[in-house]
Write a structure and sequence with these properties.
The protein has 281 residues and is mainly α. Helix content is 81%, strand content 0%. It has ten helices and no strands. The radius of gyration is 21 Å and the shape is globular.
């Protein structure tokens, strides 16, 4: 299951990053309308493929009504503290993701850098390299290293803001920062889902659904905030915003991890003779 989750979530992030390069290339070749026409064509192709491969007859099951399923997602948030913590981390990491990727085109396309749409999109390929490199995060979580992986990735996410701040001095510095940032974000994202799926295997779809709501909120809020900050304080302000969100995510993880450890250390385990050691994850 972890391998499947890692593959799917990697595909989502890699698709987002590759779309930035392809859309930039299309805009330079055929104008901005070509991006939307190509997207519409690909959507039709996907619809045709799904029509052919999806089963024609739905297997009936004794599933509860849909409103009850929606309500049960809120119940899961109330009952599972790990889901709440990981959902907040998802909001923060994808907020800092959107802070970079939404506003990055503004300084890169303006003087003195003045890159083309294709040139700006090339940084999406650098981000793909970082996202691919995080594929082992889920397997580390399965081995009990989920908390360690999360802390290291969040620290790396904060460090990545330093080279990004030197964008006007060196595009290579920006490329390094993009790779590090996307590596860190994807590592936390895969680890989050690996850990929450292990909590309630019988409610995997609802767990992921509730988690992804926070993912979307973070992405949208990061996009809106970054453009407002850029208009007010330029690229240094955007870099400071991204660093502040990254630091908040690291601080939140450290605080919740300490509280989680204290709670579990006071709770005896079910094994006889055990002193309640806290697992690594």
């Amino acid at each position: 299951m972890t391998t499947v989750v890692g593959t799917v979530t990697s595909g989502v992030v890699i698709g987002i990053l590759l779309a930035r390069f392809v859309s930039g290339l299309l805009a330079d070749l055929g104008g901005w309308r070509s991006v939307y026409l190509t997207s519409a064509g690909l959507t039709l192709v996907m619809a045709a493929l799904l029509y052919r491969v999806l089963p024609r007859h739905e297997r009936r099951s004794a599933a509860p009504p849909y409103p009850e399923l929606v309500r049960s997602v809120f119940v899961l948030f109330r009952e599972e503290p790990l889901l709440r913590v990981r959902a907040v981390l998802a909001l923060l990491i994808f907020a800092t993701f959107s802070v970079l990727w939404t506003s990055m085109v503004l300084p890169l396309s303006a003087p003195p850098i003045s890159l083309s749409h294709t040139g700006v999109g090339l940084f999406g390929l650098a981000g793909v390299a970082g996202a691919i490199g995080a594929g082992r995060a889920g397997r580390l979580a399965d081995r009990g290293w989920g908390q360690w992986t999360t802390g290291a990735a969040l620290a790396l996410m904060l460090v990545a803001r330093l080279p990004i701040a030197f964008t006007h001095s060196s595009l290579w510095a920006l490329a390094v920062g993009v790779v590090l940032l996307d590596l860190a974000i994807q590592a936390v994202h895969v680890t989050n889902q690996s850990m929450i799926l292990a909590v309630r295997p019988d409610a995997r779809s609802r767990l992921v659904g509730g988690y992804m709501v926070f993912y979307s909120i973070g992405s949208a809020s990061g996009s809106i905030t970054s453009t407002l900050v850029y208009a007010w304080a330029g690229w240094p302000g955007v870099c400071a915003l991204g660093a502040a969100i990254s630091a908040s995510a690291l601080l939140f993880w450290a605080t919740t991890r300490r509280n989680w450890r204290h709670t579990h250390l006071r709770t005896p385990t079910r094994r006889s003779g055990s002193r309640g050691r806290c697992p690594r994850r």
